[in-house]
Structure formats: C-alpha cells, structure tokens
Amino acid sequence: MTNEEIGFFNQQLAGMLRTGIPLERGIDQLCRSMKDGVWREELEKLSKVLGGGTPLPEALKQSRLPPVYCQMLKLGAQGKDLPGMLVLVADYYHRRHQVWTRLKGLMVYPTIVLATMLVMSIVTTFAMYFLSKSLSGAMWEFGQFQPISWQICVMPVVLGLVFAMVGAAFWIRSWQHYVQWRLPAFREAALAGFASTMALMMKKGVPLPEALEMVEGLDKANPLNRELGQWREKMGQGAGKAGQFAQPGRCVPPLFVWLLHGAGEDLVRGFDRAAEVYEGRARHLSDVLLQAALPVLILLLGSLIVVQLLPALSMVGAFLNALGGVGM
User: What is the C-alpha end-to-end distance of the chain, expressed in Å?
Assistant: First the structure.
C-alpha cells in the first residue's frame, strides 16, 4: 500500500467506528477492497484476532504492522478515542504521500529519459559498429587498414554506469540512505517525516525518549539513529530542554534544532513547526530541481549525439582520404 492508500484506509475506518461499527468488522470490510500485500495480510490477521475476543493492545503484539502505527492504535484505544487517532494517522500518511510523490517524480522523470538515452546509444553504437566494420574492410582493399574505433562504445558504457548507479540508489539500502541524507529535497523530506512522526506520537502522550527510541527502531541502518541516540543519552544525563539535548549533526541541520529551541518546553509545537518548514522546503526544492532537469537532459542528449557521431565522421573522413589517394 502507498502512503495515500494507508491514509484513505484510516479515514474510512475512523468514519465506520464513529457510526458504531466494531473495529474488526470495519477492518474486514475495508480489506476486501484492498490489493494483496503485507498490509492486507496483516490487517486481516488483526481482524480475525480481534474477532476472537482478544483486546486490541494484545492483538497488536502479534502483528507485523509498522511499530509507530501499532503504537498509535494502542494510544487511541487507551484514550478511548480510536477514531480521532485514526484521523491523525491518516493526516500523517497523507502528508508523507504529498511530499514523496513530488520526490518520486523528481527521480522517475530523469530515470526514464536516461533509460531512453541508453537504448538510443546502444542502437546507435551497433549501427556505428557495422558501418565502421564495412568502411574498415573497404579501406583494407585499398591497401590501408583502419581499425574500428573504441570511442563508439564510450557513451553506452558511461550511460550504463550512470543507470546502474541510479538503480542502486533505488534498491540498495545503504545507497538509499546516502541519497536521502545527502541530496537536496530528499534530506528535507526525511527531516519532515522525522518531525511529523515525533509530533504525532508526542501529541498522544508518548514520552520524548520513548518516541525517539521508536523512530530509531523503524530503520536500524538509518544514519539519523546515531544522532538520536546521542539525544537520548543527554536526556538520560538530565538534559530536559531542547537546547540541552538537541544538537545539530550530519543529518540534523542547525535550522531544525533552532526550530525546536524556539518552541521552548512545547516540543510538540517545535516538531510540528519543523515538519511544516521542511515539507515546504522539500516541495520547493523538488520543483526547482524538476525545472533544472530539462536543460541538463537536453545538454546530455546533445553530448550523446556529438560523442556518438565523432568516431563515425572520423572514419568516413579517413575513407574519403583513402579514395582520394587511390584516385590520384
């Protein structure tokens, strides 16, 4: 399920609960219209366990749903406001969907163009190879040998390496983290997600150290975890204010920390403000990068044409010189 689908599911479930439909029946009805996948499988299991009379907190312990999602459901049940919690969770996933949809567009569009350029380059290379082979054979008959230029293979190799690196950024976890925390817009989106997750949990009474620990547990390999661990360590030593435990690092920039400091003791407001600011920055940067992508791709396409044609033109020139020498 996408973030948008998860948000829509929780909105519908909240509406059902407010009309008096039991939780297990609401989940069961909504699962029937869902696509197959881990979310549907886990929600169906949760519905069956709840239908057997197991309380929600106990049923969630047997579930493989995301830890933050399970924690939010537990808090909603404990506060006797599960519909209200589901609405908050839906808003959280809708916000994530809006930000990451822009970023996926930022990655997908150049990737499609890059793949098209790679295919064009491979086709052109084969055509140049056969042309070069024919010209070399003709020049051999004229008593001159012209080897096939290795330069015709340069562009497909370069594009292939670039395409492989882009693919690695999509599929290799360590590369995903590098892209997430090093490239503009992706870093802002990651910080917005962190801030909104913290705000969501703390609004419902999750203590700050526990909320930080849960965020760390979402992705054990996330480089942000090291800085969050330092925050928790300082809180364990008695630092209770944001100005005492929150310090900038490689992942968390000074602006993020400044927003927390500015909220004083109201850290929920600080995290909310940070989420709002960094969501706006992520949207702005993604728009700027998308606008800049077109001229860059045009420049790359022009370079492709030049690099592909130069070896062929060189060989045609050598062939014409050979013909001129034979005519004389």
Answer: 74
Q: What is the pLDDT of residues 59-117, one digit of tens each?
A: 888 888 887 788 788 888 887 888 888 888 888 777 777 776 766 666 776 777 777 77
pTM of the model: 0.68
φ, ψ for residue 185 (rounded to 5)?
A: 80, -45
What would the mean pLDDT of 4-33 be, rounded to a whole number?
A: 88
**In whole angstroms, what is the distance from residue 129 CA to residue 149 CA?**
9
Q: Give the containing element (helix H, strand E) for 158.
A: helix 154-171
Averaged confidence pLDDT in the chain: 78
Using CB atoms within 10 A of its CB, is residue 1 exposed (0-12), middle (13-18) or buried (19+)? Answer: middle
CA distance 305 to 297: 12
Cα separations in angstroms, 199 against 89, 180, 259, 276, 286: 11, 21, 13, 11, 24
Domain ranges of the chain: 3-65, 92-328
What confidence tens digit (pLDDT) does each residue in 36-48 have?
A: 888 888 888 988 9
**Residues 6+ positions from 172 with CB-CB distance below 8 Å:** none
CA 97/CA 8 separation, integer angstroms: 11
Q: Of 66, 78, 75, which is closest to residue 39 (Cα–Cα)?
A: 66
Q: Which tokens in the block code for residue 51? A: 């239908």
Helices 154-171 and 173-182, interaxial angle, to 10°?
90
CA pair distance 37, 42, nearest whole angstrom: 9
Amino acid residing at 112: I
Enter the tokens of residue 12: 């519908």
